[in-house]
């Protein structure tokens, strides 16, 4: 009998529910990110171009208000100073902790300027090093040690990462001689009441297994330790594995499943999650948590930053489509800020990987959206606009090549 454990899931985790797609790391990071001061200059050159005017957007520096929406920690990494140097104005803050967009700030912002120029997104620390460096931490010179970055996203995902890491180390796959492939699963990953933690990970018995192994007193291979359940591993799961991974798992010795536990085969949630009146989590990142934890092409904190920027960019564009903002123009540049400590200059630096540009001319409710690939094609041809204040007067350097050279991450 093939029984389901999906009835234990909160509604927002249901595999039957369609979760909107977010951008793929492989396409986003196929191109090198920009040094953020360089990106800001190119953004303003783009806004002054004939192409943008053809969209109905009329740039007027006297009416334009530079804005930011990003985590407060990001203020240390030269992004604000780059905007200040480029425009001569300190950016108006529309951000919240963790790289959230504060939709209630929009009403105040348009009172300051009828054209809002937004730069925003989540941020993630980067430590240069061998094999592409690492994400999730940054060197803190005042403390002479690294620490988490973004701290908010790191804290949000930490408990989930701990549970996921334990699961992939303790779910065992093996093939007794002459038998089908078995998977031995701790009961806390089968039914949530067996776990004392608030964060629950459940294998998806419908996709991950072909049903339970029936106990046979005469067949020792069907006997299992206390606190575990034996299943037949799904044929479809095995068929989808690379050949080398199938060989690793299909042995008589129990072998940890490790990173082969893809998002399709498990669900994870926190029973203490705050939800709205419709049952949706107030923290919109949570339904995507399993995709963050089991991402194949991105470290967890980078994936979290990408997904969160997708969600918050949508919050921004959704807000500016309100009738109250029809008279105002918006140009929104959203992406992931990549923080690093530059050993060449001995100071912080920041790179920017653009995810989207939204151009909403005054008098309209809908914006024109540019894809990441389009942004790179267009911006690579642009010469940065001359800043109001020379960058070297504010950032103590006119060149940021050492930032981009330190970044060596490549998507697998």
Report on this structure:
The chain has 412 residues and is of the alpha+beta class. The protein folds into two domains: 6-21 and 156-293, no CATH class; 31-136 and 300-406, no CATH class. The protein is built from 14 helices and 20 strands. The chain has helices at residues 25-28, 36-47, 50-54, 79-87, 106-112, 151-170, 205-208, 235-239, 243-249, 289-293, 300-320, 372-379, 391-395, 401-406; strands spanning 34-35, 64-69, 92-93, 95-96, 100-101, 115-120, 123-127, 134-135, 137-140, 145-148, 172-174, 182-186, 199-203, 209-212, 228-233, 255-256, 266-270, 329-342, 347-360, 368-370. The strands form five sheets. Strands 1, 2, 3, 6, 7, 8, 18, 19 and 20 form a nine-stranded mixed beta sheet that branches. Strand 2, helix 4 and strand 3 (92-93) form a beta-alpha-beta unit. Helix 2 runs parallel beside helix 4. The longest helix has 21 residues, at 300-320. It is elongated, with a radius of gyration of 25 Å. The two termini are 40 Å apart. The mean pLDDT is 94.
What is this structure's SSE topology?
Blueprint: H1 25-28, E1 34-35, H2 36-47, H3 50-54, E2 64-69, H4 79-87, E3 92-93, E4 95-96, E5 100-101, H5 106-112, E6 115-120, E7 123-127, E8 134-135, E9 137-140, E10 145-148, H6 151-170, E11 172-174, E12 182-186, E13 199-203, H7 205-208, E14 209-212, E15 228-233, H8 235-239, H9 243-249, E16 255-256, E17 266-270, H10 289-293, H11 300-320, E18 329-342, E19 347-360, E20 368-370, H12 372-379, H13 391-395, H14 401-406
């Amino acid at each position: 009998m093939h029984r389901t454990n999906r009835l234990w899931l909160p509604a927002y985790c249901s595999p039957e529910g369609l979760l909107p797609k977010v951008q793929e790391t492989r396409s986003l990071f196929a191109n090198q990110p920009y040094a953020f001061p360089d990106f800001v200059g190119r953004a303003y050159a783009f806004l002054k171009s004939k192409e943008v005017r053809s969209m109905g957007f009329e740039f007027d520096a006297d009416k334009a208000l530079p804005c930011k929406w990003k985590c407060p920690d990001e203020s240390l990494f030269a992004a604000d100073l780059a905007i200040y140097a480029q425009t001569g104005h300190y950016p108006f803050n529309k951000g919240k902790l963790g790289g959230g967009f504060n939709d209630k700030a929009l009403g105040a912002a348009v009172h300051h300027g009828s054209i809002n120029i937004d730069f925003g997104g989540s941020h993630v620390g980067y430590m240069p090093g061998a094999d592409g460096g690492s994400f999730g931490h940054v060197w803190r010179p005042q403390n002479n040690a690294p620490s988490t970055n973004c701290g908010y996203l790191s804290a949000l995902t930490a408990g989930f990462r701990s549970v996921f890491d334990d699961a992939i180390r303790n779910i065992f796959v093996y093939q007794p001689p002459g038998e089908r492939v078995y998977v031995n699963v701790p009961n806390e990953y089968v039914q949530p009441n067996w776990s004392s933690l608030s964060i629950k990970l459940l294998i998806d018995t419908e996709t991950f297994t072909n049903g339970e192994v029936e106990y046979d007193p005469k067949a020792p291979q069907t006997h299992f330790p206390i606190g575990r359940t034996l299943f037949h591993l799904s044929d479809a799961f095995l068929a989808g594995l690379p050949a080398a991974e199938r060989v690793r798992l299909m042995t008589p010795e129990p072998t940890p499943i490790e990173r082969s536990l893809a998002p399709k085969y498990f669900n994870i949630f926190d029973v203490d999650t705050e939800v709205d009146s419709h049952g949706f989590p107030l923290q919109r990142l949570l339904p995507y948590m399993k995709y963050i934890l089991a991402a194949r092409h991105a470290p967890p904190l980078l994936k979290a930053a990408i997904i969160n920027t997708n969600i918050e960019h949508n919050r921004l564009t959704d807000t500016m489509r309100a009738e109250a903002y029809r008279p105002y123009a918006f140009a929104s540049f959203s992406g992931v800020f990549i923080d690093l400590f530059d050993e060449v200059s001995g100071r912080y630096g920041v790179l920017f990987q653009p995810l989207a540009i939204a151009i909403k001319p005054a008098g309209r409710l809908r914006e024109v959206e540019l894809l990441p690939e389009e942004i790179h094609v267009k911006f690579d041809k642009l010469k940065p606009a001359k800043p109001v204040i020379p960058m070297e007067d504010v950032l103590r350097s006119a060149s940021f090549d050492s930032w981009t050279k330190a970044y060596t991450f490549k998507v697998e």
